[in-house]
């Protein structure tokens, strides 16, 4: 064990004015983070905000993107200088977001720092990000991220220990003054948790005899997790896991598992002799995509189907007390919750809004339309867990992905869903769309566009049922007279310009729903949204940049 004396330095800096967290942490271009004192100032603000007891434990790791390793060294040196008792750091600086959340809980840590810009591109010209979690394992709530921002605006110095570079690739402990820096295997605790929730014996035999799995880690953090869990523990051949080595630039691919960025997986699913289950995960391992032969599972459907089939996994066999979805997520899960007689909460976009509900035991499953789903086993969304849950459904129900989905639609109806993203270079123009709708919200109800009558329009506001905190301006909702819904909001994870997200959903029942393309079911709502929001007028865009 290496041991060093603490050589403490207090370094002066000029405060930054742009360190406000978005939907999931602070995300900026790598070059912004590389400015002198930038990372340090934010981290000092986080330490000051968390007001950690001397000697507390903190978890640290990230998705392995460019700048991850440097940031781990800097944050460890700052932790030693700030009196943290123990830093638990993922080997190689790696920890998937759900694994970090789990480690915070198993180690009774006071919190954690996760280095990730999730699905944003990586590399020297890409993005970097940092988010912090509390002792519950959940992402810091809005009040805390706002407090950290306020603290950064007046951060005129930070504390740093002078220490020789840590060997973060070897598990073991280094002592610096009163701080122990412990490098741990990033996978083992998480893998153990998965083994508790799911019936690995059943999954092993299903994978051996019936289900051919193909998992794509998109060169991001889940590679080592997938290899350990699927190959070592569940016996899947190595070649079924691809892009399994975390790379600093993700090999140039965009680690966002959706049909646009991961079109190669959609192609594979539509091919002859497609694998039975195709899964993929995003940069930091908290999202997923599920496909089967000729079937891409829409995330809203995935949550609904999981809720309808809790019986398949030992961890959920007794059902769940309630469920939650983010407001723009399709309302498919509402029908299942209604059928089960359990509450269905509607929260603003961003995982942090689920954390209080999970912590209070009000919900046992939750999800977002952006391919993120999880349960009370951790306090973050969890990509690999979702793949294991789908595998459990295939094993327990003895059905293919396609059969599971189609049977669900036959029972509950099909909630068609689309997210239409408009990438707008000029932030002002994007804000003008939202401002115009907000200012005129009273007259939007009763108006019509592309043949659709809007019967109700409002601005979503959320009161947390646990702590009573209120979050305003969380998206604009338009309800059509025939039961359709349009939601508009601006993305809070980008690092330049703006992305307007337009979400559409409508439930249909009866014959033909399985064959009907979502585009056909939602084209009138799409036209109505574009017309009422005057997207072309404000931006010149006649079509979305991507439809997900
Ligand atoms: C997006 C998604 C949101 C998700 C967030 C962080 O936010 O819409 O559902 O929670 O990314 O996910 P926005 O504000 O860009 O719409 V991750 O996997 O980037 O931590
Ligand atoms: Co992510």
Structure description:
By secondary structure, the protein is α/β, with parallel strands linked by helices. It has 3 domains: about 1-185, Alpha-D-Glucose-1,6-Bisphosphate, Chain A, domain 3, CATH 3.40.120.10; about 190-410, Alpha-D-Glucose-1,6-Bisphosphate, subunit A, domain 3 (Alpha-D-Glucose-1,6-Bisphosphate, Chain A, domain 3); about 415-545, 2-Layer Sandwich (TATA-Binding Protein). It contains 18 helices and 28 strands. The strands form 6 sheets. It has an 8-stranded mixed beta sheet, with helices on both faces. Strand 26 and strand 27 form a beta hairpin. Helix 10 runs parallel beside helix 11 (about 330-340). The N and C termini lie far apart (about 50 Å). About 55% of the residues are buried. The mean pLDDT is about 95. The structure holds alpha-D-glucose-1-phosphate-6-vanadate and cobalt (II) ion. Alpha-D-glucose-1-phosphate-6-vanadate (VG1) binds near residues 351 and 370.
